[in-house]
Amino acid sequence: MSLPLISSISVDAKPESPKPWSQDSRPANDTKVGTPTRKKNCNCKNSKCLKLYCECFAAGVYCDGCNCTNCCNNVDNETVRHVAVEATLERNPNAFRPKIGSGTQTLRDSRDETGEPLFGRHNKGCHCKKSECLKKYCECFQANILCSENCKCLDCKNFEGSIERKPLFRGDHGSTLYMQHAALNGAAGAHIFLSPTISRKRKIQDVFSCTSVNGQSTKSFTQSKTPVQVSSSTPIPAASSTNTAPVASTKVIYRSLLADTVRTEHVRDLCKLLVMVSGEVAKTVADRQIEESSVLEGHVECSPHSDYERDQSQKDLDMPRTSADECSSGISLDKPDKEESRSECREREKGGKPMSPGTLVLMCNEKDMIFMASQAAAADPSSSNNRSMSEAYVEQEKGVLTKFRDYLLKLVTCGQMKEEKYRSMSSMHERACHMESALYSIARTSVPATTVEIPLTRTSSPAYSTNICPPVGCQTLGNGDMKIKLEKAEM
DNA sequence: GAGTTTGAAACT
DNA sequence: CAGTTTCAAACTC
């Protein structure tokens, strides 16, 4: 008995074919993989592509289409390569770990005054001396992140607020995509605009070397050689989306709208559900056939469970409710025996080593295949009625495909809802920034220092208050409204 | 495309 | 751990 559909689904949960350094998972924000589809071709000559000098080796991939000579980073030299991997790991157990860590929540969700994304930081930090960390020699710059306290660079200009860095910055200014990414990562709080951790990196440079709305440098508010704590209410003009600084590259970090929505356990649950649907359909078909044969024989007997089970089956087929909240927390499957199955799996896990989700799915498949076999046997004791069997298969397939289709439709709905959500968040943010910029322009006139408080009407978007912090200079009032607190500087 | 510069990795 | 060498990418011309 075969259940090709179920089997094929379960494959998704299975890990990819193992690589010698499978632990390596380059960060999404690493520009080397910032464009995930792009694979760099190395030009190694002396390292045989078996040292970290080789980008392919370091990235944990085979050389493919590279211009390297004496390359051993391929399937043919698996043994040699394995030795090299071992040696490398011996030297540095983290050699194949991502260089750019996601960092703390603060860091990951930070961005500078240009609105550019600054996800993560270099785990080891760079050691640049001459490039001022403004060239791709610098790993931080290359990864499109700011230098952090991990770095030991000299004359660093890759820090927040750096005038030199600004024209070189590569990013998507306050774009919807950024907002999406930030929101998906749970961006919250004041750190989204300025990270104190990153600010610590500032050394001799102007801490508040401000850039006006049009991107031109202006008089600094202060000059400091000491770390400065920057709060969200610091009167720094947010460049916002009106910043017209040249963008050297339009590389955008893409994150699926459904990221964090579909998780491994959901795939597993879906598989289980499909298996269950398949089983229910088979049972229904079997019951119907028994019924039909009984009618033919003139002995009409009611199936003791059919109606009830049909109801139950229908309940099982009902898709879970769709709501924004549900989308945010991931799609769950309302499956009656979900908890039971999980506990069963947990029971199994207790007995031995923990099993991967893929293994669990496969085991569930195995279990259900046995179940299906017994079902079919019950439906057709002679096991020779091919017509009945194929009819059952067709019904099964139909049921499973229908269920799967419903699930996909639900995913699409979730994606659309998220898209709408982030769009409204983005437009709200841009409006606030525009207003803030306008106010800042006013503030720069010769009006004596004072505090301007302008209440802003809060939009209906709950995301604004929960996921995104107020723009720089904005404060959230107790009643949910926002005000812009802007201390005017003497010019 | 060749030569130079640069900084990470490897080595001592 | 610091200094030196090797290496390949980034950069310049």
TrEMBL record:
Localization of this protein: Nucleus
Bias type Low complexity, positions: 231-242
Keyword Ubl conjugation among UniProt keywords: no
Region (Disordered): 1-37, 94-116, 219-242, 293-359
Keyword field contains Nucleus: yes
GO cellular component terms, A-Z: nucleus
Keywords: Nucleus
GO biological process, one term: regulation of DNA-templated transcription
Domain CRC: 38-161
Protein family: Belongs to the lin-54 family.
Protein name from the UniProt record: CRC domain-containing protein
Species, as recorded: Zingiber officinale
Lineage: Eukaryota, Viridiplantae, Streptophyta, Embryophyta, Tracheophyta
